[in-house]
Amino acid sequence: MKILAESEASDGEKGLVFFCPGCKYYHSFRIALGNTPNAPVWTWNGDMNKPTFSPSLLVNGMTEQRCHSFVRDGKIEFLSDCWHELRGQTVDIPEIEW
Question: What's the distance, Cα to Cα, between the start and end of the chain in Å?
């Protein structure tokens, strides 16, 4: 069961991608910088099966269609300011097709 996929940009930036069942599209955590020195980088526990990232991930934060969550121990903890129906719930990260 694969729940994360690796991504790498030509400038060396590295990320880990997961499918968000609330938004119905992919989100990613940047874990290594490329040539963008001021970009945020998340800490990661190194586990591809039960990942934990810190801090939280805010997608579309300046719009009404936001997704705000923590990923801990292979689960997505959706915060109450999410716009979708999974706000306030914790769900397993679904399998990914990448």
Answer: 12
Give burial (CB, 10 Å; 0-12/13-18/19+) of 75.
Answer: middle
Q: Are 78 and 67 in contact (CB under 8 A)?
A: yes
State the Cα–Cα distance between residues 22 and 86, nearest whole angstrom. Answer: 6
Would you give the distance in Å from CA 54 to the centre of its chain?
Answer: 10
Instruction: Give me the DSSP letters along the chain.
Output: ----EEEE-TTS-EEEEEEETTTTEEEEEEEE--S-TTS---EE-S-SSS--EES-EEESTTSSS-EEEEEETTEEEE-TT-SSTTTT-EEEPPP---
Global pTM value: 0.90
- In this model, does residue 52 exceed pLDDT 90? yes
The CA distance from 19 to 25, in Å, is 6
